[in-house]
Amino acid sequence: MKVLQSVVVPKNSGKSVVVKQGQILRVAGRTIVDFVAFNEHNLRERFDQARTKTNQVKLFISAGDQLFSKHNNAMLTIVEDSFKEGRHDLQKGMCSRKRFEMVAKGLAQRKFAGGVDLNPKRAEEIPDHGCWENLIDALKGRGIADEDIPSPFNIWQTMKIDPDTGAMLDTTVRPKEEAHIDFRAEMDCLVAVSACPESGRGQAIRLEVYEE
Ligand SMILES: [Zn+2]
Predict the structure, then answer these.
(1) How many domains does one find in the chain?
(2) Ligand 1: distance of its center to the CA of 155 in Å?
């Protein structure tokens, strides 16, 4: 396979890449990545968490599964997923300055009983930006309104979901070594990612685009 692009995304920052139909995008890292995609030729068509879950009738996706758009077209197929110790998330949105502040002021729940608290504990630990701001920055100049950035596919964000109550329990289950997830583009896609700060635990990630 020929490497067409290789991009390092420093921790708590965002980047975007274009992946043409048939090309493979690899996301490699060890900490949460917030991942969104748009049809490069119609930026109004974008990734949709609900369509992705409903079309495959499940909450967790991995190799063989697809990411669907709001228009119900397959955008990307997961062709390889090396993360075996945990899962990826399709329930949560993105962290942001406002969310951090809401948690700090007690206006949003920190965690569900039994889950791990991933939020900053002290005021001085609150980052001044998070994945929301990183994705806005990554998509700057593309003419996409901030509010049109969809809720993401959260790579390596392992959560336990109580089957009876629906409680979402955060965990710190992440890849022990660098893991990767490979997507084949089913249409020309503009992809944007954020290397989540994860309250200080976040690390840099890598994007690679290949042609087979
Ligand atoms: Zn985040």
Answers:
(1) 1
(2) 11
pLDDT tens sequence across 156-167:
999 999 999 999
The Å distance, Cα 165 to ligand 1 centre, comes to 25
pLDDT in tens, 41-98: 999 999 999 999 999 999 999 999 999 999 999 999 999 999 999 999 999 999 999 9
Ligand 1 centroid, distance to 197 Cα (angstroms): 6
pTM: 0.96
Indicate if the alpha-carbon torsion angle 196, 201, 207, 212 is positive or negative. Answer: negative
Q: Ligand 1 mean position to 31 CA, how many Å?
A: 10
Cα(96) to ligand 1 centroid in Å equals 7
CA of 24 relative to ligand 1 center, distance in Å: 24
Contact criterion met (CB below 8 Å) for 190 and 16: yes
